[in-house]
Design goal:
eight-stranded mixed beta sheet; alpha/beta; 7 helices; 15 strands; five-stranded mixed beta sheet
Length: about 300
Amino acid sequence: EARDGDAFDAAVAQNVKVHMRVYQEAGVEGSCIENWHIEFLRPGEFKTFTNVDRGWSFGKAANQALGKKFFKLLVDAAHCGDSGLTIAENQELITKILLDARAGDALYGEEGIAGNQSSDRHWIVDPIDGTVNYYYGIPHFCVSIALRVAGEITVGVIHDPMVGETWTVEKGSPAYLNGKPIQASKRDTLAESILFVGCGKDGAALRTGIDRFQRASLRARKMRMMGSAALGMAYIASGRIDGYIESRISLWDIAAGQLLVETAGGKVELTPIAGYDDAYSIIATNGLIPIEEIL
């Protein structure tokens, strides 16, 4: 059975002791290893650390013992949708963290609003971008958070928990992936490019997406339909792919990604969708490929 109370604390302490010994005896200090991802499984497999919150009790304790942020949690891909939290509960956790730190701010998320809506500081939150991937156990989804001050996006964070990648950007500073500067690719032809085309669920958006996918497939090196707009934009900023287009997407999906792409040297064009609040058609590229040729 799952341990609680003193028994759980003892389990955390024992895990910290074991990992500290391995860290020391394996000669990790001073090596090329930057992080250690700890995999915690789900109920029936490892009954002490049965969810991310309990697992992170170990992560925090281990990092504190080591004196730096070295240990990270990795959720088994086969169970990535089995977090024990709904999407709304994920947003509630994010809301608490942000508004506890900035009580006067507002929060605008996919699952609703919170805080002081008259504030000129709005946190724009997608608690899980790539929801279907998340629920079906496909390990390609992320958390996306942006800060909008007086109508301008000034901060962006995108975190992919499955591979331990975190993109960060602040207006006026470089864009980073896990603390290292990134740049969009220098590819300038469609024949060299990898493109991500999104298709909406309504009839018009679906037809537009499929038509674009067909045209682009004949011109681009490869096409991708990945299921997460935020990660698609993070990949453009990192130079992994070269373009992302979709005929309708929501602000929380792309707010952080827009600042990332533009800061990394790319280009983002947003066109508001009539009749929908904070919904846009989007064309995001490395700023070099002739994307207009397949629109």
